[in-house]
Amino acid sequence: MGGNVFKDSLGNSLTKRISKTDTFTTIKWLENTFSLSFINNLVGSTGKKDSTSDIDIAIDENIISKEILIQKINNWLQYNKFNPKDYIRKSGISVHFLCPVNGMVKKEYVQVDFMFCNDIEFMKESLSYNTNSIYGGASRNLFLSSLAKSTAGDYKYSWKQGLIHRSNGGIITKDMNEIAKFLLGDNHNKNDIESLETILNSIKSNKPIINNLSNLIKKLNDSNIKSDQEEAMRIKIILEKTI
Questions:
Q1: Distance CA 31, CA 148 (A)
Q2: To the nearest 10°, the Cα dihedral for 96, 98, 102, 106?
Q3: Rounded to whole angstroms, how far apart are CA atoms 132 and 113?
Q4: 155 near 165, Cβ under 8 Å?
Q5: What's the pTM?
Q6: Pairing state between β 88-91 and 94-100
Q7: 49 DSSP assignment
Q8: Domains along the sequence of the chain with CATH
Q9: What is the pLDDT along the chain (243 residues), one digit of tens a residue?
Q10: Number of CB atoms found within 10 A of residue 11's CB
Q11: Helices in the chain by DSSP H: which ranges?
Q12: Burial of 229 (0-12, 13-18, 19+ CB in 10 A)
């Protein structure tokens, strides 16, 4: 996610932001070209904002593997005499495709991220985008992760796996209503964690949660690990807007 994978030798992006209209017509082209259905599996802000930096599509790995999708893309690239190495990248759970907008080759390109998972419904929920929020879904998920880390319980939140045991990685729940209860209290549900704003509204008068987060900031700042200190700063900035 982010649309910054494909660059030229000078580091300039080979892709462009894509309008909502072109997003849907490009997805239709992808579906027709690869004989797959994508339209119901859009994640993040894809198809919701007026324009986005890339197209994010969740892929059910129980239905199609990375290897099969890559082969389908390769077949199209080779038919059009393109070098697959220039148009396909792999990272983590994703296959990135340098995709011609609306299938019009040698014109404008957009990055398409095919994101593989074994629970597509959870991924669509965990990577959902609230159009009323000024923050992206990534900000929401980072804060949920910090909330889980700040609790006294053995909790870790992952947008890929749900709420899990930090000690052994065992899954506690993927139910967003249950996750909200674990992190915010029994009187909360998934509507309270659908955006960073709704989370902040839920915790602003909850002194125990605020105290837990303040203690986590101190713990992270005492670490010599850069990512811990960055997380501490991120939480601090958010809390300053809340308290």
A1: 38
A2: -170
A3: 24
A4: yes
A5: 0.87
A6: antiparallel
A7: S
A8: 18-124 (3.30.460.10), 131-242 (no CATH)
A9: 666 899 999 999 999 999 999 999 999 999 999 999 999 999 999 999 899 999 999 999 999 999 999 999 999 999 999 999 999 999 999 999 999 999 998 889 999 999 999 999 999 999 988 888 888 888 999 999 999 999 988 899 999 999 999 999 999 999 999 999 999 999 999 999 999 999 999 999 899 999 999 999 999 999 989 999 999 999 999 988 776
A10: 6
A11: 20-34, 66-79, 84-87, 120-126, 137-150, 176-184, 196-203, 207-221, 226-242
A12: middle
Token readout for 2 is 């982010």
d(CA 147, CA 185): 12
Length in residues, the chain: 243
Residue 113 in tokens: 């991220």
In the chain, the amino acid numbered 154 is D
Burial call 189-204: b when 16+ CB within 10 Å, e when fewer: ebebbbbbebbbebbe
**Tokens 């997380």 -> residue:** 231
Amino acid at 62: N
